[in-house]
Amino acid sequence: MSDSPLFFPAGLEKVFLAIYSISIPYIVGLMFLYFYVAHAKTETFLALSESSSFFMTWAIGYEMIAVLSILWFVKSAITFSIKASKNKTKQGFRRPV
């Protein structure tokens, strides 16, 4: 199992990267439009999807992924800062020699 990568098959890495770059933001955009804008009503979503373009849906999904990535990065930075300050207080302040 470790010899064959699951998400990027050997020799087709660039093709799958392009597929994922297009499909994942589009799917996230569709989910956002369905659950948040259409309030999970199929009739409203279908009427909305007729008037929206592929690129607009992809851009919405791309922005959603970007916002979630930035929030995750900020959360990680805050967590790292808290852990570093706790370690510093446990060790005490040492004077450089």
Secondary-structure element sequence? HHH
User: How would a textbook summarize the main sheet?
Assistant: none
Number of helical stretches of at least 4 residues: 3
Instruction: State Rg.
Output: 22 Å
Q: Into how many domains do the coordinates divide?
A: 1
**So what's the overall shape?**
flat
Oligomer: single chain
Task: Give start-end ranges of low-pLDDT stretches.
Answer: none
Q: For the residues shown, what is the average pLDDT?
A: 86
Helix content: over 70%
User: Would you report the number of β strands?
Assistant: 0
Instruction: Determine the strand fraction and express it as a percent band.
Output: under 5%
From the N-terminal CA to the C-terminal CA, the straight-line distance is 51 Å
Name the structural class. mainly alpha
Plain-language structure description:
With 97 residues, the protein is mainly alpha-helical. The protein has one domain. The chain has 3 helices and no strands. α1 packs across α3. The relative contact order is 0.09. The mean pLDDT is 86.
Question: Helices and strands in order, then pairings?
Answer:
Layout: H1 13-37, H2 42-51, H3 54-91
Helix pairs in contact: 1-3
